[in-house]
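User: My collaborator and I are trying to settle a disagreement about how two of our proteins should look. Neither of us wants to argue from intuition anymore, so we agreed to look at predicted structures for both before our next call. Could you fold the first one, then the second, and keep them clearly separated?

Assistant: That sounds like a sensible way to settle it. I'll keep them separate. The first protein:
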Amino acid sequence: MKKRIFVLAALAAAALSAHDIEIAVEHAPPAVIVRTTYAGTEPAPYAAVLVYAPGELGTEYQNGRTDKNGVFSFVPNKAGEWRFVVDDDMGHRTESPIAVELTGSGSAGSVAIQMPLPLKLVTGLSVILGLTGFLYGYKARQDRRTR
């Protein structure tokens, strides 16, 4: 009898932990994108979200719900450790700190675009060839006028 209770308790604990809400944070300046999942696999759709700014305990900076894919995003207005709370209203809840660093000036920071090296090379060559063509066309036009 005790063995059955232990096995049932172990299975119940495994089933409950399989539905813990986990979050994955992606920084995409100026936004922060948070993906919520149950045990890292199944999205947590339409879960309630509360976002608290650094130093704010009572009033949330933003609130809302994840989308059907379990994704929520927000644009922080200052650097620091933000508090992120997700609750699916079915007993699954998690609270996690999110470290945010802003770059540049302004409240939302600046967005730095990183281009891959091949794209940088093609862009550079395009600019050089375009300017060269423009200059040769201008020179040819000037030569025609002087004739």
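The second protein, kept apart from the first:
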Amino acid sequence: MLRKIVKIDEEKCDGCGLCVPSCSEGALQIIDGKAKLVKEIYCDGLGACLGDCPNGAISIEEREAGEFDEQAAKEHVTRRQKPKLDLPCGCPCTQSRKLKRAAAPAKEADGEPAESELIHWPVQLKLVPPNAPYFQDADLLLVADCVPFALADFHKRFLRGRPVAVGCPKLDDAQFYVNKLATILTESEVRSLTVVHMEVPCCTGLVRIAQAAIAKAGVQVEYEDVTVTINGAVQEA
């Protein structure tokens, strides 16, 4: 049938993922670093995602396309909302544990690195249990996975005393992250959420994920947004 449907200009798309959470039908995903229309039948053609693209890569065109299937779209969204917390193989990466640290942080000496400030495992947002004890009433750190490589004093400056969840807003499933983070905020009564991301445009998707998760959870939480440059400096907070 001839109808209106989303069109994505891949040359303009930088894969930031800001459009994904705004599509309530789950029609958009980041695949191979670009926004893609998963299935025509999931797109209602109303263009709720248009205003969220900073590069103007999304538009609405009228062309031959499969009819929008509201029921199929709902089932698709429901499937994506089910967090997969454990792997059937019992892989050690999914086994939640709290790490013991010295009461006083290690002091840096010439040629000697400081002690790690990581207080739990795992750290990947896909794998952390939403109700883990280290999240309870905590100051949660949500970090783009490139940040610790660019910021030399990341452990001392941000990680000390905080639980952390790590993810890539460009390459991972943004809607899954919204749902998973909202569950953590709801079940663990998190006090504050600090988002630390790189200055590159695609990394700002982590901010949108955090904001969408807070709105979905319906909780009051202190929020801070920190930008790190590729040269390893804190640009703004």
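Some points you might bring to the call about the second protein. The two ends are 49 Å apart (CA to CA). The CA atoms of residues 16 and 202 lie 3 Å apart.
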